[in-house]
Amino acid sequence: MKTPYAKTHSNSQSGFISADFIFSFVLVIGCGMLVFLLTFSLAVVEISQYIVWSTARNFSAANESEDVARGQALIKFKNLSDKFPLLTGSNNPTPWFVLDDPVVGDLAKKDSDFVAKLENDTQNRDGSQQIRQPWIGARAYLDFKILKGVKLPFLGPVLSADKRDDFKFPIRAFILRHPSQKECQGFFEVKNRFNEGIQKISGESFSQIQTVHIQSIQGVDGASKYLPMEDNGC
């Protein structure tokens, strides 16, 4: 005679509590990991923004020519990146993030990705077509390497295999560069301010004005003379 099914199998469901606990525990760990990665990534973005802004600020100084200022700005970028090796990848074989490819200068001419987004606004004009501050500053790319290999429980990898190489974002900062004393004096020369500016003003007869160099200031008479001089304190 066969033993009844109810007598040979227990109806206890205590094992389901352990399964639910393990599932909930893994799910909480996965969500906590995702929240940590997001908040940590946002913190790295702020640090990267400061590094790029400091680079642009160093370039904006008026103590040297543009080429010298660009070199000093890149040195500033390198020095600050070395202070955060895990966050910038500088001198670190296994970085969590990589901040590299810095570009300094007029980003409307040097940053192809930025030019594509500007479309027809490369000169940064307002509604009345007046040119505002040029797109001068610095740019670097932040690569989120820490997210490329992350796999969440029950969900799999955060990024698909075909998107892992493109998971980086540009960090930009814009600060108008001040001209050096030599550049400022060069602006007031006849070939710049007079020939390229004053003589081209429409509705006036400025094209007939004679030019006088500062060395021959003595003996100049009449009002139709152009004498280059620094009138803005540069």
> Which blocks of ≥5 consecutive residues have pLDDT under 50?
213-223
State the shape. Answer: elongated
Query: How is the largest sheet built, in terms of strand order?
Result: 1-2-5
Largest sheet: 3 strands, antiparallel
* Tally of DSSP β-strands: 7
What is the overall number of helices?
A: 8
Helix amount: 40-55%
Calculate the terminal CA-CA distance, rounded to whole Å.
111 Å
Strand content: 5-15%
Assign the structural class, choosing from mainly alpha, mainly beta, alpha/beta, alpha+beta, or little secondary structure.
alpha+beta
The overall pLDDT, averaged over residues, is 77
**H-E string:** HHHHEHHEEEEHHEE
Radius of gyration: 32 Å
Describe it for me?
It is elongated and about 110 Å long. Helices cover 41% and strands 14% of the residues. The protein is built from eight helices and seven strands. It is of the alpha+beta class and 234 residues long. The protein has helices spanning 5-8, 14-59, 66-83, 85-88, 107-110, 112-118, 181-187, 190-196, and strands at residues 98-106, 136-143, 151-152, 156-157, 168-174, 210-211, 225-226. The model is unreliable at 213-223 (pLDDT under 50). It has a three-stranded antiparallel sheet with strand order 1-2-5.
